[in-house]
Design a protein that fits this description.
5 helices
């Protein structure tokens, strides 16, 4: 049976100041564009390889990294985004996605091995 009155008092409204001043959102770690509604927190060094740091990314950008690199390659590059951008496939992707909407999604092409 439900209680008629809460024993902890009435529900308190959260402070509205936090909503009025939203925290500044970091840009996408890979492409540098503004993040959209969906943000993926990506481990640049995979967790299976001891990575603990996370960076904000677009889902499509994370899919592109996962499609083009294996875990050992991502571990080798670490937090160095410039080394990842030196790869011609990733550079081509970043140049292409720069013109897209922040909430753009697409299925990535698989790396030809």
């Amino acid at each position: 049976m439900a209680r008629k009155h809460s024993k902890h008092g009435p529900y308190e409204e959260p402070d509205r100041e936090e909503e009025e001043n939203p925290a500044t959102v970091a840009p996408c770690w890979l492409c540098g564009r503004v993040l959209g509604k969906t943000t993926v927190w990506h481990h640049p060094v995979p967790k299976s390889r001891g990575g603990r740091d996370v960076v904000p990314m677009h889902p499509v950008c994370q899919q592109a990294l996962v499609a083009n690199f294996i875990n050992s390659e991502l571990q080798r590059h670490g937090m160095d985004v410039d080394a990842l951008l030196a790869d011609p496939t990733v550079r081509k992707f970043v140049d292409w996605v720069a013109k897209k909407d922040p909430d753009f999604t697409a299925s990535p092409t698989k790396k030809q091995r």
